[in-house]
Amino acid sequence: MTFTSWQFGVFAAIVFVLYYLPALKAFQVQVLVAASLFFYGYGQPELLPLLAVAVLGTYLLLALALENRRLWLPIGIAFNLALLAFFKYKFLFLDAHAPQLSSIAPIDFLLKLPLPVGISFFVFHNISLLVDLTRQKAGRPTLTAVFLYIIFFPQLVSGPITRAENFLPQIKPKYLADVAFIDAAKWIVSGYFFKLYVANNLNEFTSYMDFPHYETLQPTDRWLLVILYGYQIYADFFGYTAIAIGLGLLFGYRLPINFNLPYISASFSEFWTRWHISLSNWLRTYLYIPLGGNRYGTFRTYLNLMIVMGLGGLWHGAALSYLLWGSLHGLLLVIERPLLGRLNKIDSTVLRMMRIALVFFCVTMLWIFFKLPNFDHALDYISGMFMPGKNPNPPKLFYALALLYALPVILQHLRFDLLMEGRLKKWEPYLYGLMLALSYLEAGPETSFIYFQF
Amino acid sequence: MARCGIAAALLLLACRLAAAWLGGGLEMPATTTGDGSLYTLNRYFAGPRPDIVLVGSSLTFRLNEAYFASPSLRNIALAGGSPVTGLAIVAHQAPPPKIILVETNVLSRPVDETVVERYATGASAEPKFLRPIRALVAAAENFAHEPPSRDQLQAELDRLVAEQPSSFDNNVYLARVLREQDEDPSAIVRANVERLKELMALAEQKGARVLLFELPELPEVERARAVGITRAIVHAAFPNDDRWIHVDVPREQLRWADAFHLDERSAVIFARAMDKSIAALGAR
């Protein structure tokens, strides 16, 4: 069930009504858990047992780790990583199209299961739960609370990755009078606008980046489409997260912000404090710092950065392109690290603009490996950006249309919101009304959220 | 929240009224072949019934209406679609066009029943709401690029035909096409041929003349398995020569940039040759 389907709208409305019904007040958490299970199992009920195994297994290991952290915490983490690794990377070793992968029926069934939606995200939630609660030596939460934390439907499929220590304390009775309707509406309208108006329409253009269509593109169009893809992936993911945050508010839960104008970053380290913030925080807290962070000298710091970013890339998918994408980001972080101190001391708008442009350029170029996970295709695309194409039938791209669809991302990064908070504050509701109408009128063809595949 | 709702409602109302007023007046920019096909069909139904209509796949889609001499010829070939879909749409018209020309190169795609149903009433399926951003761009495009006059267009096409054929090396694409055409589409081709027969009979009952044609392909592609099987099935089902419109075209002048579709120059050459064959129909 995708956020942009009418079925989801009906589902969310029903859950909202049930959640605040006085008769069900004592069962709010259970209502959300049941709704989340329904949401996850809708269309793919065969994956529900997997979800149950992941959550129940983690809960059991949590209970054991609260008694003996030294022994059971590593096992709990290994259990979750094994689940993730099995489903994410099994097709590197198996032929997905083979009629039979094992002579043992249950194993054959398991081997043929598709990548469970949201596994990358709920596994990270599980690990956060294990580490945070055992570190705090907290009391064991109820199974229902753990279920809710891990499978809360707004964040189940693509995050934001919420830390257990931030989410669990929010589990308490919620009241309709306390719902931040205006905030929730603003997030939800923004989310649908960025997804339907920006991302889905830009997808029509960037579909020419797919193989073999990109072979017909001239170099200038290849460059344009790379930039458009950068805007599209931002709008798509920001849109999803905004809807998730808005939905969370409707049910009384504050989910973390996942984006903070990433394309105005003046450095790569700044970029990772603005892009997919919840993932960056997770990797820093549970991987980079345990590896030693920057506490063991320069070489070890660089090594830790490369490991974290490389694994972060692999988290996205089992392909060389994702590993390369992550590793190149790691390399950029390593290269800029010794220069950052000096650069940040220089107070120059022109320099800052140049740095922003450089970061934007590098980040945008690296998105090619996301768009084209086949490494050969990615290299082929890049080489065509520097050589004139010979294909006599290049497609016609409507540049004005592309600009108009990309404009919200550009305006957002130019801090149009500051105008809204200032002199134009009284026009803000009308702007949201415009966005709402355009989300319907100019909705691009349906396409799934990019991060659903992770 | 109320002001938000009011703003949204006003914009929706404005776009609803604009759609009713403009109809198909503005040709929206098509960013995909899917879009393009729908605009083509909407334009077809919005205008007067033509004398001649072409139905086909993306191969026929390349034969722009402007390449033909007759102003009363429409091309509703569906890029990515099946010729049978196009025939199903026009065969249900009352009355259908006088001459319906059906491409038989690509019969391995199923009929798109959704599209057929959408246009079954013969009414244009224009969207209920104007898309303001696309309409703005369409208006700007129309303003900035006024379409050439017929004479200017013909002069441009004459210049194109007078050029030498393209020397673009399409071997990479040829290898790809040959791989794609190395399957056996018998089952679906047979089913489509049966449907073709029914639809042809339906159109002819209503007074249309339905003729089949084949677009030329690269020799290597014509020898490919799927192409050979399709041709054999179609010619076995329609053996009579008077079922076909034969287009006499200088093949040495034709080029296929992607090894499958005629390039623009070749499409013009083919269309002009087809014009002669259509004119000769009047004498038959």
Please, how many domains of chain B? 1
Instruction: Describe the global form of chain A.
Output: globular
The CA-CA distance between the termini of chain A, in Å, is: 16 Å
Order of helix and strand elements from N to C terminus of chain A = HHHHHHHHHHHHHHHHHHHHH
Distance between the termini of chain B: 70 Å
For the report, how would you describe the main beta sheet of chain B? 4 strands, parallel
**Radius of gyration of chain A over all CA atoms, rounded:** 23 Å
Helix-strand makeup class of chain A: mainly alpha
Query: Averaged pLDDT of chain B, please?
Result: 87
Overall pLDDT score of chain A: 90
Q: Report the uncertain regions of chain B.
A: none
| Helix percent band of chain A | 55-70%
Reading off the top of the CATH hierarchy, the class of chain B is best stated as: Alpha Beta
Order of helices and strands of chain B: HHEHEHEHHHHHEHHH
Percentage of β-strand residues of chain A? under 5%
Number of strands of chain B: 4
Task: Count up the domains of chain A.
Answer: 2
SSE-based structural type of chain B: mainly alpha
Number of helices of chain A: 21
Parts with pLDDT < 50 across at least 5 consecutive residues of chain A: none
